[in-house]
Design a protein that fits this description.
It contains 13 helices and 16 strands. The chain has 366 residues and is of the alpha/beta class. Helix 7 links the parallel strand 5 and strand 6. The longest helix has 18 residues. It is globular and about 65 Å long. It starts with a strand and ends in a 5-residue tail after the last helix. Pyridoxal-5'-phosphate binds next to helix 4 and helix 5. Pyridoxal-5'-phosphate (PLP) binds next to helix 4 and helix 5.
Length: 366
């Protein structure tokens, strides 16, 4: 049996009947864009965050872009983020004409290092308008410290929550700390649609209103654009699917946590660096990411047993042609060279986890 790091089909099959019923409801209803399903999902996703507003958009990249614009980021501004993330994080910043400034990660957690952030906020050139912490692999960044630094420097915070649906810091959900949070519902995420989807979550009604306008041509009212906007709408079919899957998010995150606990216990003696969980955080294990300098050898060893692991991400953004930056980021480079993501999604069984552990424990590091 082939084991995959991501298996959106398993996520569909687990709730196939309910998903098909939801799709039928939309087909029969005749509203296909920004209708009752999107409105209901926005209410339910905001309620999941304990209040505020959620605004459905077309994907996670545009959720980031529109959230940044809504909190006031404009052309020429600097936005501080990390380089061990998917291209989307920096692409969203560039779409505005703003410039990403990459900072180093904490080698233990692989998340934004507060000391590096503090240095980047003090350094020039340009005004740092916003910070985008990425809650990578479902592990929330150090939000209390990041928020404190941001407030002292007058910078806004937009959380990249594409991998952290349901994670908490100090008992409070990631996505409720910053000025706004951007979510992706790409099919492989912890809350995944059956196509593209995204949302901005915020407690600031003015920010929510700006995102609502920006997602539809900058309309103030129908057919009247007040500002340059774009088309970034969430469709009814995806919203209906997301409503079905949202009801299972906490239970599925609990399965991921159980799998992670099983990996941590069984791999304690393996020749690997296991993921570290920062004090006070409850990750949601979008990925279970181990580290070894012999990453490619381990990956090949597992693939030979039909265990297919992901590498998120092999090339850090500061080394990609589109975002090239000269800042040295040795810890980021090392992480990207060493990370390997083991299958941890809810379609994986305990027996699967045991199979992966056995295969790793039999591996002889070259
Ligand atoms: C998936 C992802 C995004 C982008 O989301 P899309 O829906 O693919 O546009 C942004 N940031 C991170 C960290 C992601 O994992």
């Amino acid at each position: 049996m082939s084991l995959l790091t991501a298996d959106p089909r398993a996520g569909y099959l687990a709730h196939a009947e309910e998903i098909r019923a939801a799709i039928d409801r939309v087909l029969a209803g005749g509203r296909y864009i920004l209708g009752p399903e999107v409105e209901a999902f926005e209410r339910e996703w905001a309620a999941y965050h304990g209040g505020g507003e959620a605004v459905g958009v077309a994907n996670g990249t545009e959720a980031l872009e529109l959230a940044l614009r809504a909190v006031g980021v404009g052309a020429g501004d600097v936005v501080v983020t990390v380089a061990n993330t998917v291209s989307a994080t920096a692409a969203a910043i560039q779409q505005i004409g703003a410039r990403p400034r990459f900072v180093e990660i904490d080698p233990a957690t692989m998340l934004m290092a507060p000391a590096a952030l503090a240095a980047a906020l003090d350094a020039g050139p340009g005004r740092v308008a916003a910070i985008v912490p990425v809650h990578l692999y479902g592990q929330p960044a150090d939000l209390p410290v990041i928020m404190d630094l941001a407030r002292r420097h007058g910078a806004k915070v937009v959380e990249d929550c594409a991998q952290s649906h349901g994670a908490t810091v100090a008992g409070r959900l990631a996505g409720t700390w910053g000025d706004a949070a951007a979510y992706s519902f790409y099919p492989t995420k912890n809350l995944g649609a059956l196509g593209d989807g995204g949302a901005v979550v915020t407690r600031d009604p003015a920010v929510a209103a700006r995102v609502r306008a920006l997602r539809q041509y900058g309309w103030r009212e129908r057919y009247v654009s007040e500002q340059p906007g774009r088309n970034s709408r969430l469709d009814e079919l995806q919203a209906a699917v997301l409503r079905v899957k949202l009801a299972y998010l906490d239970a599925e995150n609990a399965v991921r946590r159980a799998h992670a606990g099983r990996y941590l216990a069984q791999l304690a003696s393996a020749p690997l660096r296991l993921p570290a969980v920062a004090a006070g955080t409850e990750p949601v294990w979008h990925q279970f990411t181990v580290r070894t300098p012999a990453r490619e050898a381990l990956r090949t060893h597992l693939a030979a047993q039909d265990i297919h692991c992901g590498v998120l991400y092999p090339v850090p953004l500061h080394r990609q042609p589109a975002f090239a930056a000269t800042t040295p980021l040795p810890e980021t480079d090392r992480a990207c060279a060493e990370v390997l993501c083991l299958p941890v999604h809810p379609g994986v069984t305990e027996a699967d986890v045991d199979r992966v552990c056995t295969a790793i424990l039999r591996w002889h590091q070259p």
